[in-house]
C-alpha cells in the first residue's frame, strides 16, 4: 500500500499532514528515511518507524459505540447524522461500518468494524446471536405477554422465534413498565412490533448487549472506544479471522 495511506490510517493525520511529516525525514522504512508519500510498502513485512516509534499496522479495527438517539446506523445519509459522523478521522479512515442496525430513536450498543466476515457471522440468522434490550413501555406488560414472547409472537409478515421478556418494573399509577427483552433475530423494528402485538408501546429502547459484547456503562451517549483485548477474544466464538 502507499506509505501516506498507511501513515494516515495509523493516526498520523490527514494525507496533507502526513506529507509534512515525510518531508521532514521523520519516517524510516526498514531503517532508511523515506520522503515520498507515494512510496509503496508492504504493511505486513516492512518496518515503519516514525520519530523513533515503530508502527504496527492494524488491518481490522473494532469500536464499541453508545449510539445516541437521532443518529442513524448507516455509513451515509443525506438528511441525518450517521454513526460515522461521531467518529474521529483515524477511525473513519479505516472504513468501518455498523454491525447491524438500530432504529434512529434506539440508543445503546453498536459495534463498528471493517471486518466484513465478523459482521456477516454476527448477523447471520443461522447463528442466533442474542441481542438484549432494555425498554420503557407505555402499558403494563405481564406474565401473559412473557408467555407470548416465549412461544414466538406472530406478526403480520413473519413469525418471531421464541424470545424472552423479563419484567423489571411495573407502575400501575403511570400505566407503564420497564422490561428486558432478549431476541436472537434482527428483523426490522422487531422489538417494537413484538411489544405492539401485545397491545403496548415501546417509548424508549436501549440495546445493552449483542452476543458476548456488553454496553459499557462508562461510555456516554455518542462516545465510543476500541474493544478491549478481552472483548476481542470473546469474538473468537465466531471463528473468523480477527
Ligand atoms: N428492535 C426495534 O424495534 N428497534 C431497534 O432499533 C432494534 C430492535
Automatic annotation (TrEMBL):
Phylogenetic lineage: Bacteria, Bacillati, Bacillota, Bacilli, Lactobacillales
Domain RNA-binding S4: 1-66
The EC number(s) this enzyme carries: 5.4.99.-
Keyword flag Isomerase: yes
Name the UniProt record assigns to this protein: Pseudouridine synthase
PANTHER family (UniProt xref): PSEUDOURIDINE SYNTHASE, PSEUDOURIDINE SYNTHASE FAMILY PROTEIN-RELATED
Class in the EC hierarchy, top level: isomerase
Family, as annotated: Belongs to the pseudouridine synthase RsuA family.
Keyword set, alphabetical order: Isomerase, RNA-binding
SMART domains associated with the record: S4
Residue ranges the record marks as coiled coil: none
Highest taxon, organism lineage: Bacteria
Keyword Isomerase: yes
Amino acid at each position: 500500500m502507499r506509505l501516506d495511506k498507511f501513515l494516515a490510517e495509523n493516526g498520523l493525520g490527514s494525507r496533507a499532514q502526513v506529507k509534512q511529516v515525510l518531508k521532514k525525514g521523520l519516517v524510516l522504512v526498514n531503517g532508511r528515511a523515506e520522503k515520498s508519500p507515494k512510496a509503496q510498502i508492504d504493511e505486513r513485512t516492512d518496518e515503519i518507524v516514525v520519530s523513533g516509534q515503530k508502527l504496527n499496522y492494524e488491518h481490522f479495527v473494532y469500536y464499541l459505540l453508545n449510539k445516541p438517539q437521532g443518529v442513524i446506523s448507516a455509513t451515509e445519509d443525506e438528511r441525518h447524522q450517521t454513526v460515522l459522523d461521531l467518529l474521529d478521522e483515524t477511525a473513519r479512515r479505516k472504513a468501518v461500518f455498523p454491525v447491524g442496525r438500530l432504529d434512529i430513536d434506539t440508543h445503546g450498543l453498536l459495534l463498528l468494524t471493517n471486518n466484513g466476515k465478523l459482521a456477516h457471522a454476527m448477523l447471520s440468522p443461522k447463528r442466533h446471536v442474542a441481542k438484549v434490550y432494555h425498554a420503557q413501555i407505555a402499558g403494563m406488560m405481564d406474565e401473559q405477554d412473557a408467555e407470548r414472547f416465549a412461544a414466538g409472537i406472530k406478526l403480520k409478515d413473519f413469525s418471531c422465534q421464541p424470545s424472552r421478556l423479563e419484567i423489571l418494573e411495573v407502575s400501575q399509577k403511570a400505566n407503564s413498565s420497564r422490561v428486558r427483552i432478549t431476541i436472537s433475530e434482527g428483523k426490522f423494528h422487531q422489538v417494537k412490533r413484538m411489544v405492539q402485538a401485545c397491545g403496548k408501546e415501546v417509548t424508549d429502547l436501549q440495546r445493552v448487549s449483542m452476543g458476548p459484547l456488553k454496553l459499557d456503562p462508562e461510555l456516554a451517549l455518542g462516545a465510543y472506544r476500541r474493544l478491549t483485548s478481552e472483548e476481542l477474544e470473546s469474538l473468537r466464538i465466531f471463528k473468523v479471522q480477527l
